[in-house]
Amino acid sequence: CVCLSLFFSGFCTNLLLSQTPEHILAQTNNKTEIFCELKKEHAGVYWYRWSQERQIFEFLMFSNTLGKAVYGTNISQDKFSVHGVSTHTSYSLHITNLHASDNGTYYCSVSQSFQLFLGSGTRLGVVDVLPLPLKTTQAPVSKKPVQYTTKSRAASRRGPCSPLVWIPLAAGVLLLLLSLVLIAHRLHRLKRRLWLRIH
Description:
Keywords: Adaptive immunity, Disulfide bond, Glycoprotein, Immunity, Immunoglobulin domain, Membrane, Signal, Transmembrane, Transmembrane helix. It is found in: Membrane. One of its GO terms (biological process) is regulation of immune response. It contains three helices and eleven strands. By secondary structure, the chain is α+β, with helices and mostly antiparallel strands. The protein is rod-shaped.
């Protein structure tokens, strides 16, 4: 009793056992399970429930290493049962046919040096309908259109004064002028020869 009073005052620490999970949300008429791991073997495990609504601390049951159980007052044997392993260091409390009256914080406990040491507690909430899991929506990734530059566009972007444009053009014009000069010179010589022959 001293250790229990110190526990609720926040002074009783426990290094003898660990309890999981911290929170359970279960649906009405379903079942659940609470785990208790002991640091070393004990004669058995006690289970308690703290009801915030009724403000009472109830003794549920005690299960020894032989699998025999002792139940508290007005505790249904069909609702609560304890399962252990051969090492006697791991126990689990099974609760079936859940209802709103099962809401509370459940503690596993061991006795040592005439004191009871409690676990960290598991808060059980029983609801008629379980909430739907939140859907994580991701914003669509905006993809920028990739611009492909063709050769014609590249040439047009360089502008009309680009060297790639006017150098070939100037070379072509020069070749055309040279060919015209040669043709004119030959025509002039042919014309002179014809005039000499006629006269």
